[in-house]
Structure formats: structure tokens, C-alpha cells
Amino acid sequence: MIKTTEQPSPYDGLEQMPVSSLLRAIHTEDGKIHGAVEKALPMIEQFIEQIVPRMQRGGRLFYIGAGTSGRLGVLDASEMPPTYGVPQGLVIGLIAGGDGAIRRAVEGAEDDPERAWRDISAFHPTAEDTVIGIAASGTTPYVVGGLQKARQAGLLTGSITCNAASPVARASEFPVEVIVGPEFVTGSTRMKSGTAQKMVLNMISTTVMIRLGRVQGNKMVHMQLTNRKLIDRGIRMIMEKSGLSAEAAQALLLKHGSVKKALDSTGDESSETTGSQSPKGAIGE
Fold first, then answer.
1. Fewest CB within 10 A of the end CB: N or C in the chain?
2. Residue whose C-alpha is closest to residue 91's, from 77, 81, 74, 102
3. How far is it, in rounded angstroms, from Cα 44 to Cα 156?
4. DSSP string spanning 180-203?
């Protein structure tokens, strides 16, 4: 039985198709992703409900993967500190072959079933931590082995795959299977599979950060002020909530270093009644 991700594309003679037809066909295939992700929502919800209390108690979130899947995990993890102001090391992306594999494939790295747990072990994991294995094929030894070891050690485990009933899914407690069908270019899982994996990662990390109190209303009030665009965004947030002028809002923001702290300093009660209060045990300010 050929895995879904390896089945032949429903399109052929791609090199003979005009650009307009190529684009239309890719777009048609991408349109199938949304429905596949929707079917996985119940499992994603169950998984998040288990992740949040562990992180409230100090647990961390690890992503493990190889190739495109590994890069997607590293990308998602790297965006958490600037977007939500959480400490470096709260969400950790690990890719087979190490950081060098982000830019250049490392031959054979994904075939070592022991390597992922060694990579995780460098961070001294505890039973409050969570490991998410990401593998479109669902067969990557690096991911399978890492999940098996993590589960044996008492960590919470989940996975994101694009084939049904895979070894990766069997190795995890909360398998998220997003079956998007054959790729437009046969076997090129950087396409539909990669997009589906990124959508699921966005759902998990964003929902977790909201539940940890890193968002108020719909605003990233803990974001790091690393460039002018973000400073301007922070000024607008403060102006909207407090009624201050742009000059006063900027002075307050630069003094306190975050939108949340600036709003707290104004005593503006509206910042505490936007529908998203920090749950008990949420990551500190």
C-alpha cells in the first residue's frame, strides 16, 4: 500500500502546462487543506487541553522533525518570544541534523531513532514538558524514536502527520492526522502537507499562548518591541485602551517596555476586562 503522501499526483505532464494552468491546479489542490484540517480539530482541542495546564506549571513545548517538518517546528518556536514575550526556551524547535539542517539537508540525520531524545535530553526534560513530533510521512525514525522515548519518560506526546495510522501517530498519545491527499508534484510534501502542518502548529501555539494569558482582547500585549513597526503597533494599542495621545502613549511604552506594563501603569480597568484574563499559573510578566 503506497502512503497517501507518496501517491501519484492527479495531474501529469506538468512541464507542458501553461503557467495559468499550473497556478490554477496548485490553487485547487491547496483548497483541499482546509477540510482536512477541520476533521482534525477535535484531536487538536483535546491535545491543547492537556498542554496548557502543564505549561502553567512550568512545562515546556518541544517540536521534533526532519526536513520541511523540522523547519516548520523551528519557525513556529522561534516566533513565540517576539510575538508573545515568553522566555527563550519555553517553546523549542529541534530538527534532525541540528541547526545547520535548517538551511541545508544533512544526509541520514532523520534515520537515527535515538538522536531526537538525545537532543531533547540536553534540555533536561521533565514530566511537565510536551513533545510534538512533526512528520508528513509519519515514518521518520528521528521522530518515531523521540516520541517513544519521551512517552516512556512521562512527557506528554502528540504528533502531526499526513498519512493515516502511521508509526509516528502510534507513538504519540494525541495523534493529529491531516490527510490532504497526493501532492501536486508527487511526493513533494513541502506543498499541501507542509501547509497543513503549519496551520496546525499555528492553531496549537496561538491557542496555548492565549490560554496562558499572553493576549488581551485580540492584541499581542506582551510582544517584544524589536523594531519601529512593533513600537508603532504598541502605541496604537495603548491609545485605544487609555485614550492617551500618541506622544504620551509612546513615552509610556518606552518607559515600561511592553504594552501590558504600560497599560497596567495607567490603572486603565478596560485592559483587564477584554475577555482574556491571565489564568492561574500563567507565565509571569
1. N
2. 77
3. 14
4. --S-SSTT-TTTHHHHHHHHHHHH
Taking only the tens place, the pLDDT of each residue in 146-191 is: 999 999 999 999 999 999 999 999 999 999 999 999 999 999 999 9
41: helix, strand or coil: helix
Distances in Å between the alpha carbon of 161 and those of 90, 102, 104, 174, 280?
A: 23, 20, 23, 11, 33
Residue positions annotated with a catalytic role = 79, 110
The pTM of this model reads: 0.89
DSSP structure class, residue 278 = P
Q: Give the number of other Cβ atoms within 10 Å of residue 89's Cβ.
A: 11
How many residues make up the chain in this entry?
A: 285
The crossing angle, in degrees rounded to 10, of helices 192-211 and 41-56 is 40
Q: How far is CA 129 from CA 17, 26, 50, in A?
A: 49, 38, 11
Distance CA 43, CA 50 (A): 11
Sign of the torsion formed by the C-alpha atoms of 52, 56, 279 and 209: negative
Strand partners, 63: 93, 132
Spatial contact of 129 and 59, defined as CB atoms under 8 Å apart: yes
